[in-house]
Amino acid sequence: MANCKKHLRVDLHTHILPKRLPDLSKKYGYPGWISTEELPNGKQRMMLDGKPFRDICCNCWDAEERIKEIAETNVDVQVLSTIPVLFNYWAKPDHCLDLARYLNDDIAMTCQQYPNKFIGLATLPMQAPDLAVQELRRCVNELGMAGIQIGSHINDWNLDAPELEVIWDACEELDVGIFVHPWDMEQTGRMEKYWFPWLIGMPSETTIAICSLIFGGVLERHPKLRFCFAHGNFALILAGGAFPYTLGRIEHGFQVRPDICAVANKVNPLSYIGRIWTDSLIHDEDALELLIKKIGIDRIILGSDYPFPLGEHKPGELVSNSEKLSEEDKAKILGGNVFEFFGSRVDKKLFIQ
């Protein structure tokens, strides 16, 4: 029988949005924006260009409902970040900044109301790096947010795009964690059926993002940056993208074709193990064991994707019920490693009751 000793549980991977998303298509004069409308059953419907996009429950916006639900699953603290579909990197920069400020103010207000239950991550207009840095500084210095959530790519830029260097400089200076979430997967042609964008496209996005940071020299140029990648399970699926599983292939390619792989960074990819965090969203104990072996016990953080169906519905249960992990290792994953990821921006003492 697994030891059910109580450890502090901090869920890094949860999503939230304001209770109301206005119709920005009318405000800005062009389509593509998500809005919300209330339903008679107490739910809301996310709308995209006048068509239903997704129905959501009150736990997507109601802080008190979230607190009640996480108590039922033994989670102590949630890290709040926006729903990735709201990144809107495709939009005009000023309009994306306007929405980002609205989303960030809402998350910050929730964190201020319940300071021992929530930690906030900001979203930025990453397609306009100067505006992104401006909003990053506001969110950290004025709103007290602990880090940022970004997409796995920024339109046509991978994460090694030179345009993003000013953002990485600012993240190092401000000592914030960077949570990378796969998004904007291909959804047409061969990827159209069977939920392939989420089951297969997301693993590919995660691996492209990690390899871009390594091969593009971002981690080499910015030794203080801390990246955590969402959906640890996606990193291990046998699909087009599987960073820990294909790490040997990636490193072998670096060795045998340096003329292709090592054009921007001559450092072996294996040297960056220990610089990369992932969440624990695995759903399988064997996969968790492999993730720990490849990424390291100190670099895995509890993450559930609350409140969405692909997530772990009882956050941390796989870890806490494991017969293979020591209590010390369980404590690291469930609530210890996250504070190292956030560095100076989060004081662990505030969350220990």
Automatic annotation (TrEMBL):
Residues 10-338 form the Amidohydrolase-related domain. One of its GO terms (molecular function) is aminocarboxymuconate-semialdehyde decarboxylase activity. It holds the Pfam family Amidohydro_2. The chain crosses the membrane at residues 195-215, 227-247. GO terms for biological process: alpha-amino acid catabolic process; L-amino acid metabolic process; proteinogenic amino acid metabolic process; secondary metabolic process. Its EC number is 4.1.1.45. InterPro entries: ACMSD (IPR032465), Amidohydro-rel (IPR006680), Metal_Hydrolase (IPR032466). Keywords: Decarboxylase, Lyase, Membrane, Metal-binding, Transmembrane, Transmembrane helix, Zinc. It is an enzyme of class 4 (lyase). PANTHER family: 2-AMINO-3-CARBOXYLMUCONATE-6-SEMIALDEHYDE DECARBOXYLASE (PTHR21240), 2-AMINO-3-CARBOXYMUCONATE-6-SEMIALDEHYDE DECARBOXYLASE (PTHR21240:SF27). Monomer. Belongs to the metallo-dependent hydrolases superfamily. ACMSD family. This is 2-amino-3-carboxymuconate-6-semialdehyde decarboxylase.
